[in-house]
Design brief:
Layout: H1 21-29, H2 42-54, H3 57-60, H4 79-101, H5 105-112, H6 123-138, H7 152-164, H8 167-178, H9 182-207, H10 212-241, H11 253-260
Length: 268
């Protein structure tokens, strides 16, 4: 039966219910229907699952051109490098992008100027820069106790979650799959906190002077350009993690066409 090829949120008991990114890869590779294809590296699986579920329906389809290239990566020896690429992205792209959006340019510049984070020895300098970034980002919310009371705390939490839920969650999952050091956990947490506080500052400025009914919409509109920028950047990160061409050919010509052409309609 011909159906429109659309990546769906979450896991599915059968293909008739839909396919997420990794369920589609299982189909391409001729494996049983599941979201843990044996042919895909654990780091790439973690990244694609989190990105698939973090993106909304329309931007989720941007994953489609990359899926065939994940096949055959399970034992290619590149997972450590992939995990460190994700860690580096969190520290030197995700966090400073949000800091810059909030006007915290000194902290953003400090993170951007770091050398590539590609080994445990690189984390000390990164953690120092992230601690400074967190301190600077928090200044946008003041230091008095009233600042952190509801409804302000609820708005702050919502902005932090929006900043995290798509591209950053995917990079976190990929980094954690291959970088297990305690300092790595600290760096990921610090990047998330600094970026979240910066995003909350952006949202707070947008809400200022706006009625309560319109405040949430105003905050989302203010965050959207940076969210879109980071989604594009995360797809670029995925592209760098992948082999240039598929290591194993897809099972059908229609499936191959679907992975290279987001507008294609394959026979499933």
């Amino acid at each position: 039966m011909s159906t429109d090829y659309t990546l769906s949120y979450g896991t599915h008991a059968t293909p008739d219910q839909g396919r997420c990114a990794m369920e589609w890869v299982s189909h391409l590779a001729g494996e049983p229907h599941n979201d843990q294809p044996a042919c895909v590296s654990p780091v790439l699986r973690a990244f694609c699952i989190a990105l698939n579920d973090g993106l909304e329906d329309v931007p989720r389809q941007r994953l489609r051109p990359y899926l065939a290239r994940t096949i055959g990566t399970a034992d290619d020896g590149a997972d450590s490098a992939r995990a460190w690429m994700a860690m580096d992205w969190l520290i030197r792209t995700y966090a400073p992008t949000w800091l810059a959006a909030a006007g915290v340019t000194d902290a953003a510049d400090r993170l951007w100027s770091l050398a590539e984070v590609s080994a445990p020895g690189d984390l000390a300098a990164a953690l120092e820069a992230l601690r400074f970034a967190r301190q600077r980002a928090r200044l946008g919310w003041g230091t008095g106790p009233v600042t952190w009371l509801a409804p302000g705390v609820a708005a702050r939490a919502a902005a932090r979650e929006m900043a995290w839920a798509t591209a950053a969650a995917a990079a976190w999952a990929a980094a954690r799959a291959g970088v297990g050091e305690i300092s790595g956990d600290r760096a990921r947490a610090a990047a998330r906190a600094a970026a979240g506080d910066a995003a909350a500052t952006v949202a707070r400025a947008a809400r200022a002077g706006v009625g309560r009914a319109a405040a949430r919409q105003a905050a989302r509109a203010a965050l959207e350009p940076t969210l879109e920028e980071l989604q594009r950047s995360a797809l670029g990160l995925l592209d760098r993690m992948l082999p240039t061409v598929p290591l194993v050919a897809p099972v059908t010509a229609d499936a191959e066409r679907a992975c290279s052409d987001p507008e294609a309609v394959p026979v499933l």
